[in-house]
Amino acid sequence: MTTTGAQQDATGSTARGPLWWGRRRSAALDLGLGAVSAIECALEGVGFAEAAALPVPFGVLFGLVVGAVLVLRRRWPIAVVLVSIATTPAEMGYLMGLVGLYTLAASDVPRRITVTLAGMSLAATFIVTFVRVGQDVSSADFDPGAWYVPVMAGFMSLGLTAPPVLLGLYIGARRRLMESLRERADSLEQELSLLADRAEQRAQWARTEERTRIAREMHDVVAHRVSLMVVHAAALQAVALKDPQKAVKNAALVGDMGRQALTELREMLGVLRAGESEKRATVDPVPLAAVGAAAAAAAKAAAQDGPALADIEALVEQSRQAGMVVELALQGAARPYAPDVEQTAYRVVQEALTNVHKHAAGAKVMVRLAHREAEVAMQVENGAPDASGGSAAAGLPSGGNGLVGMRERVTALGGVFVSGPTDAGGFRVSAVLPDRVDGRDGVPDRVADQAVAE
Known about the structure:
This protein is rod-shaped. It is α+β, with helices and mostly antiparallel strands. It folds into 2 domains: 3-191, no CATH class; 308-454, Histidine kinase-like ATPase, C-terminal domain (Heat Shock Protein 90, 2-Layer Sandwich). Strand 4 and strand 5 (427-434) form a beta hairpin. The chain has 13 helices and 5 strands. The chain has a 5-stranded mixed β-sheet, sandwiched between helices.
């Protein structure tokens, strides 16, 4: 275990390896230092025993025990320093004192404790050195002066105390900085992973939105045109033998409907191919954002190339040619709107008329289009279906997605959509769209009520 383990052990945390060592080489290092310190203290214990008039084996044993305490430096650095201070008068444990002060300064022990113990070690070393140097000077044949003993004691005490403490403080600060940088790197890695997940979610959402938009466009184009073709085909079958001229007219209308449907499908596929090309061109530098950008570009291009409010009269005329009684009422001065607003308004009217062909054959229809100050409103209302209508026999299928698609289109632009049966047995579809797409703050419910009441 490195000195990081010493910091963790000094604060009381559990070591990750055997005992308090995290790695085998850390244990080997501490055991080696402990053995060297024990040998040193054992040798110095001989002189201590002789000076104290004690048996030499006692001094050697005492030195072995004291020096072996260095093995505990990572677990209890304070105890190691205290033992080294206590044995300073016996002039043993120099290695234990140096290593103990370094380990204490590098650990997470509070700085006040480190400073206190370092001061105690400095004072003990100074006193012992002062006494020893004074004894040596008194036994010498020359007098170096009064300043010699304190200066030498100061140099010796500072030399044995300051270097390990300063080195330990530096290593501890560097280690804490590295730990902080490592934690910050881990945090940044987690944030990047989270951002990547969110980007993937946004890309998936963009793909889903694009698929939904394509499904709505296909439904609007195919459902309306094919529904009119089926209605005309049913009328053609009914009058083919009785009125050949009318049958020819209906056949021409069926052809026109089919060509218009193919034209709109080609335009839609062209927009999709353009969006796909743009996505492939941008997939290398921004692989996740390209999907959303391509989807937005395709949607914008589709809105610019799609139908507009000016085409509603032609749309109504097509339903009239199919035998539907349709009345169109325009209110307010016509003006240009954003492309997606005009296309959405057109699709709402188109889908509402398609639903009348499917579910209310022979019913009279009222189409209202109102240009207001900051919005455009549209309403398609039909009366009760006529059971004898020719379209009822055509067997037009219904997927149940028409109203859902209209609501999605309108609410996506910040508008309001309301639909439901009328008291007369018919059905009403109303929608209000803001003048500009950027103003998506929502439309109050009273606007919807006003559209329904008209």
